[in-house]
Amino acid sequence: MPSAVRVVIADDQALVRSGFRLILESAGIDVAGEAADGKEAVAAVLEHRPDVVLMDIRMPVMDGLEATRQVVGAGSATRVVMLTTFDLDQYVFEALAAGASGFLLKDVSPEHLVAAVQLVRSGDALLAPSITRRLVSRFAAAAAARDGADLSALTPRELEVLSLVGRGLSNAELASALTLSEATVKTHVARILTKLRLRDRVQAVVLAYETGLVKPGLVAEDS
């Protein structure tokens, strides 16, 4: 039996924390700790070593973006999912640049919240197609090809996998598209990240566009 997912909830509103705790614990997810500001969030992550931290962007003392930078900078294996009330590009890009693995609005449904936590814990990036499309537009308009990115280290199959990751496909969707098991897909993704020295799938998505492996217009549409 796989171990239960461990989560820390960081939000300055006690009602939000209580609501999320109830939803997650009802789904069998272990809420290891809570935090009311960014400084407490960093301390809670370092103390409890959760799989995922749900990190509000707007918090007192230290905001969620800086807290995320500190969590990632400390070498923590914890994956950060940013929470906000506003679906604004500024927050999306700053959160991903800070090292977040995903982005959720606070009015997310209980089912989506639970699925999101499980998805990120499994190693997927939580990037909705609409957010991925904005990533494409941003990098297509403003970013030159990444210096030193050498895709020649990848096998043809790994290039194919990276291309689909860049289009926003999850491991399950990759497995279906390539007629492979999810375990094999995870192995390919792990090798790609290792070979290209990438931290996670978010960086892989960005790299796929920066190198021109994936072009704007190839992103999966919202269902």
Share of β-strand residues: 5-15%
- Under CATH, the topology of the largest domain can be stated as Rossmann fold
First-last Cα distance: 32 Å
Q: For the record, what CATH class of the largest domain applies?
A: Alpha Beta
The biggest beta sheet is recorded as: 5 strands, parallel
With strands numbered from the N-terminus, the spatial order across the biggest sheet is: 2-1-3-4-5
- Helical content stands at 40-55%
Structural class by secondary-structure content? alpha/beta
What number of domains? Answer: 2
Low confidence ranges: 142-148, 218-223
In N-to-C order, the SSE pattern is EHEHEHEHEHHHHHH
Tell me what the CATH architecture of the largest domain is: 3-Layer(aba) Sandwich
Number of strands: 5
Rg measurement, Å = 17 Å
Total helices: the number is 10
CATH superfamily of the largest domain: Response regulator
Global outline: globular
Task: Characterise this structure.
With 223 residues, the chain is α/β, with parallel strands linked by helices. The protein has two domains: 6-126, Response regulator (Rossmann fold); 145-210, Arc Repressor Mutant, subunit A, CATH 1.10.10.10. Helices cover 51% and strands 12% of the residues. The protein contains ten helices and five strands; from the N terminus they run βαβαβαβαβαααααα. A five-stranded parallel beta sheet has the order 2-1-3-4-5, with helices on both faces. Strand 4 (79-84), helix 4 and strand 5 form a beta-alpha-beta unit. The two termini are 32 Å apart. Residues 142-148 and 218-223 have low confidence and may be disordered.
